[in-house]
């Protein structure tokens, strides 16, 4: 297969960026999207050009590092992570436009790599359970209703890739935030800090410059882990209760 690739190149955070066009031949339908970029980088290195910088780690759809806008869609035409997207999803001689996440809260570091440290700072402002004295109790010794435990496990599959932010016209991280709030809020271990947690994490979300949610739903449609839109309703409910309690 042969492709025309229009790829965002940017030397650094303070530099101007632009789309550069490359031609790539010899692509197998069994290649993942990242393997295709590896092939292009080999070609660039052999011709004495600087390879394209992009993020990846596990390449198994687990870590969420492979964050790319592909033809204007977060992670591309399939609802999966970029590393699990295969070139058979495209047609021979297609033109593919590849860009980094477009969000003011995810500044570009270089080429296709963005800084998603904002997510880490949101987590550090409450996305955990504290055990202030002694060791934490064995989790299996704390009874939990099956439906609540299952829901907590389901939303805990969020990998923090940022596709929800990239897909949202408002640049909101409410789906990510809702997943973290719901994950801990459904379990008995998360109750002592439930309302202070949501107040702190929402404040950090807003401080990072993410937009507000208007329930468009693009976030859930783009999420590679299928996080449901109703976690945002849970987020809003917990936030209202938090305000009532004076947090």
Short description:
The chain is α+β, with helices and mostly antiparallel strands. Helix content is 34%, strand content 11%. Strand 6 (108-110) and strand 7 form a beta hairpin.
Structure characterization notes:
The chain is of the alpha+beta class. It starts with a strand and ends with a helix. The protein is elongated, with a radius of gyration of 20 Å. The protein has two domains: 3-110, Beta-grasp domain (Ubiquitin-like (UB roll), Roll); 116-244, Alpha-helical ferredoxin (Fumarate Reductase Iron-sulfur Protein, Chain B, domain 2), CATH 1.10.1060. The strands form two sheets. Strands 2-1-5-3-4 form a five-stranded mixed β-sheet. Helix content is 34%, strand content 11%. The longest helix has 15 residues, at 230-244. α2 (117-124) runs antiparallel to α6, α3 runs antiparallel to α5 and α5 packs across α8. It has helices at 33-46, 117-124, 146-155, 163-167, 174-185, 194-207, 218-222, 230-244, and strands at 3-9, 18-24, 69-70, 73-74, 95-99, 108-110, 113-114. The model has no long low-confidence stretch (mean pLDDT 95). A hairpin with an 8-residue loop joins β1 (3-9) and β2 (18-24). It is built from eight helices and seven strands; from the N terminus they run ββαβββββααααααα.
